[in-house]
């Protein structure tokens, strides 16, 4: 009986070790690539967070590194105030920009695209879980960078080292250079009337 108890405890201990190893690798994260993704047109869709179908499954993803304006009907006053302050624009223009960013993303994702994700929880209000992701268009362009380059997204939010080895700080600097060019050219929010305060 005592031998059986030791054997049982050994199995429990081994099981705990295996579970710990599995959880450790899950939290460290492994990039996964989803090819041939399609955009689903849902009401919650905006410029940086959207429903996607791939391989018969539906997902919700949100972009790393950037934040596009929230739509007026979502009622996220604190968030939209911070966004308007970032660009020094009026709220009415921010809501216009939100629609433009959503339309821009819809066009860029009209052909099958690629999602690269660590399955990191991005929270959200939907019943489906939402995950952070990098998105490559059918042309191989990074969606976050495109949005910043059009003055439709601010550099804000969850950051992550890239699958190609670039650090999060390096990517942020690249986005800042893209943003500076958009600002100089008066694209998107950068070309809208500015608030005085």
Summarize the structure.
The chain is α+β, with helices and mostly antiparallel strands and 197 residues long. It contains five helices and seven strands; from the N terminus they run H-E-E-E-E-H-H-E-E-H-E-H.
Describe the structure.
It is a single chain. With 197 residues, the protein is α+β, with helices and mostly antiparallel strands. It folds into 2 domains: 1-29; 31-191, OB fold (Dihydrolipoamide Acetyltransferase, E2P), CATH 2.40.50. Helices cover 41% and strands 19% of the residues. It contains 5 helices and 7 strands. It has helices at residues 2-28, 77-87, 91-108, 143-149, 168-184; strands at residues 32-40, 49-54, 57-63, 66-67, 113-117, 130-136, 154-155. A hairpin with an 8-residue loop joins strand 1 (32-40) and strand 2 (49-54). The protein is globular and about 50 Å long. The relative contact order is 0.16. Residues 1-28 have low confidence and may be disordered.
């Amino acid at each position: 009986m005592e031998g059986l108890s030791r054997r049982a405890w050994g199995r429990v201990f081994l099981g705990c070790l295996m579970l710990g190893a599995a959880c450790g690798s899950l939290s460290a994260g492994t990039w996964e690539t989803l090819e041939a993704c399609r955009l689903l047109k849902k009401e919650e869709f905006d410029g940086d967070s959207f429903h996607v179908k791939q391989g018969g499954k539906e997902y919700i993803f949100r972009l790393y590194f950037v934040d596009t304006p929230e739509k007026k009907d979502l009622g996220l006053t604190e968030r939209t105030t911070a966004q308007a302050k970032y660009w020094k624009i009026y709220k009415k223009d921010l809501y216009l920009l939100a629609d433009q960013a959503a339309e821009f993303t819809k066009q860029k994702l009209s052909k099958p695209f690629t999602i690269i994700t660590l399955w990191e929880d991005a929270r959200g209000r939907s019943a489906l879980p939402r995950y952070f992701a990098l998105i490559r268009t059918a042309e191989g362009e990074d969606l976050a960078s495109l949005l910043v380059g059009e003055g439709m997204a601010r550099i804000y939010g969850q950051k992550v080292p890239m699958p190609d080895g670039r650090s999060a700080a390096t990517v942020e600097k690249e986005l800042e250079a893209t943003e500076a060019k958009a600002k100089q050219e008066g694209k998107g929010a950068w070309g809208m009337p500015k608030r005085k305060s």
